[in-house]
Each structure stands twice: as structure tokens, then as C-alpha cells.
Amino acid sequence: SCCCCCCFSLFLSISLSLSLCVKMDEELIRRMLNEGNVEHVKEYCVNVELDEKVSPNCIADASVYMVELVALLILDELTSAKLLWGRIPASIKKAEPELIAIWQVFQVLWKDDPTKDAISSYSWSPIVSAFMEELKEVLVQRAFNKAFILYSTIHIDELVAMTGLSQEDIILRANSEYKWAFNEQSGFFHSQGPSKSKTATSTNSISTLANSISALETA
Prior knowledge:
By secondary structure, this protein is mainly alpha-helical.
């Protein structure tokens, strides 16, 4: 794996020197995204920021910041995203409404609120749209995994609120990917596997549970 990391670093250096006299190598970025290498996308963008030949005074093109910011959201590195936002020049933020829209998605994630409206309310550029689609899928997976860990029984309305999916899509994914049995009369899913939570049944929201845990930690 160490050899792979060294090879990838060399690959990034060559890519930067050959192709980044322009804004950003979108073909390379898309290829890394399609291969599931979002971590490599992040590393690529950081290298662009640090390359003086491409980014004078370490100030990159706005497209680099956009891709890097969404990549950090996909990786669930919200603190790093906050630090990135702090070093983006104010002039770039002011000139790029799409960058502001990505930041608004971050703010929703930071508050642990539903992201569906924040993501769907903006008409993203093609490259950012590809990353937003990946982010939506990642967030759905996280929500299902969170529910699977916390609950052995959960109402479908809670999963709708957590994932932003339709009831039909939730039933399909819950049955096929998580093997949850669905009771149409009660509207509850019942986990087929062992729950890691001591709480067997919950009709409270995830946010309520999080608030309770926070209160216990500060008591």
C-alpha cells in the first residue's frame, strides 16, 4: 500500500506539471470519482492549491475549491471543510454563487439537518453535480447504517426524514440491502439481524436521541 501511495503521489505530480496550466483536469477528476477514489480527488486538489505554478500565492481557481469542498463532504471530513472555507479568499467566495451553495450544504450537514433541499435547490455545474450525486448516495448509506446500528425497529416515516427517499425506495433498499422486514399495517421495519443498540424499539427521531446523548455528556 505504501508503494501505491508513492506511485499515486508521483502520478499527481506529473498530472499537475503537464495538465494544470489550465483550471483543472476535469477528465482526471471524473475518472477518480467514477473509480470511487474521492480521497485521491482531495489530495489532487490540495496539491493544486500548493503548486505555485498553477496557484500563485497558493490561491487556486474557484473550481478547485468547489471540488475539494464537496469531496470533503463526501468523506465526512467536516472540520477540514471548515478549514478550507476559511482559507478561500473572500473575493472568490463573492464571485462564485455555486461555491456559496456548496457551503450552504456544509452548514446543513454541520447541523445534522436533512440535506435534500440544500442539494436539490441549486442548478450545479456538471462537475459539481457529479460529486453532489455521490454525496447524496453516501448520505443515504450513512442514514441507513446509522438506523441499522441504533434500532431494531423503526418507522418508515423516520427513514423518509433521515434519507430523503420515497417510501417505495426505502422499502426496496431496506429489504434488499439490510434485510429488514416491513409491516405494512404498522409502518414499522423490524431488523432481521442483531441490533448493536440496547434500545430495541424507537419511534423518536435521530435528532432527539442525539440531543439526549449530548445532555448526558454535559451533565
